[in-house]
Amino acid sequence: MKTLYWSFILMLLPSMAYTQNTEKENEFTMSMQIRPRAEYRNGALFPRNEGQKAASFINNRARLSMDYKRSDLEIKMSAQHVGVWGQDPQIDKNGRFILNEAWTKLNFGQGFFAQLGRQTLVYDDERILGGLDWNVAGRYHDALKLGYANKNNELHLILAFNQNDEKKIGGTYYNDAIGQPYKNMQTVWYHYKANKVPFDVSLLFMNLGLETGDAATQDSHTRYLQTMGTYLTYKNNSWNLDGAFYYQMGKNKNTEKVSALMGNVQAAYTFNQTWGAVISLDYLSGDKGNGDKYKAFDPLYGTHHKFYGGMDYFYASLFKDGFAPGLVDSRVGVFFHASTKVDMELNYHYFTTAVKLADLSKSLGSEVDYQINWVVMKDVKLSAGYSFMRGTKTMDVVKGGDHKSWQDWGWVSLNINPKVLFVKW
Fold it and tell me: How many CA atoms lie within 13 A of 373 on its CB side?
């Protein structure tokens, strides 16, 4: 696999070996972020049983980002410390300050570029590849991205090969429990933007190498899972329409053959500068556990918090006891812009399983999510939200907890994110 990577790269680079004769302006940007979030969890991620007490905490992200850019080169480094207030001692010699971004981008001219290092991969609406910014730590990949772009077309090739350390012997066994969730990845993404109509289309193909070897003997066996699909958008002054369809095949980490589907449609309409409404339907196929192929779709590394309810019952957390019933999420919502500085939204989700489980209804329950955002001043935004879930007996079986218990979640977050330095020379 490594030989294949380097052979492919060496074939590409000569065709892109275009250098700028005259360097243009240099730019340097520094930004900071402090983002504390207080949460009250009384059944978030997993339903609680009657009598279990609610949990409360304050987490925090402290991030420093630096970006240098000129016509043919860009380098970005971003370091962060994340955690919960009080989890570290007052005298701490083992801080967790890490680089969440550390990449360089080489522009070869004529639209060609290469970007390599630790980077976020955010594509389309983030259902398959997303930055997971809601999570205090976010998500990153160590990868090489080769790309081409012009006015209407954009093409990316993403390559990754992961190892736990600088090995001397022992083959290429990779323990994904302490690293990235895949051993290697090859992804192709293409985006087309039409000229005369507000229509965009994206195509995605991802091949994931998943480690299924033996940790004790360091015997490496890699299974390959393929995900392919399209994402479509249409936007005008009032309507915002989008939809996607993805298919999964190959083998998963349990060496099962996979045949799974995912699809979604969404329509948002803006009535005026104040009011709007949205409806959407998401389908992720499930598995009954009795077939010759595994039919539960895995949305992989998307930002699931954006789509399947704010309480993160689905795909942001696991189903119980190996259940994989899939999901159908029917949503209706309204959004309201009270002023240029205050906006809010209210969403109702009705969840069902995608497959019928024995002796159980497909209904999982309903969730209501409310969020309000207030721009306090430049670079400072205060947000708050409240959600509650009314589950069913089926929810108890596939997620745990007691549907007769009240399940709710509330949070308040302050996001301070100024650009503190910008220099050109």
Answer: 13
CA–CA dist 415, 35 (Å, integer): 5
CB contact at 8 A, 213 and 188: no
- CA-to-CA distance for 322 and 300, rounded, in angstroms? 17
* Residue 29 pLDDT > 50: yes
Q: Please count the helices (runs of H) and the strands (runs of E) in the chain.
A: 2, 19
Q: Can you point out the beta strands (E) in 174-296?
A: 184-193, 199-211, 222-235, 239-251, 257-270, 275-284
Q: Can you name the residues that pair with 419 across neighbouring β-strands?
A: 31
| Residues in a beta bridge with 153 | 192
Residues sharing a CB contact under 8 Å with residue 281, sequence separation 6 or more, in sequence order: 264, 265, 266, 328, 329, 330, 331
C-alpha triplet 42, 45, 51: angle, nearest 5°: 35
Q: Cα–Cα distance between 136 and 66 in angstroms, integer?
A: 19
Place of tokens 């919960």: 84
CA dist., res. 127 & res. 85, Å (int) = 31
Over residues 221-228, mean pLDDT: 96
Residue 132, CA distances (Å) to 82, 105, 206, 343 in order: 14, 22, 19, 22
Instruction: Give CA separation, 146 vs 32, 106, 155, 332, 362, in Å.
Output: 29, 10, 8, 39, 44
Cβ(130)–Cβ(302) below 8 Å: yes
User: Which structure tokens are listed for 313?
Assistant: 């019952």
* Portion of the chain with pLDDT greater than 70, in percent: 94
Q: Which two tokens stand for residue 213?
A: 């070897």
Q: What are 311-361's pLDDT values in tens digits?
A: 999 999 999 988 999 999 999 999 999 999 999 999 999 999 999 999 999
Surface-to-core class of residue 189, CB atoms within 10 Å of its CB (0-12 exposed, 13-18 middle, 19+ buried): buried
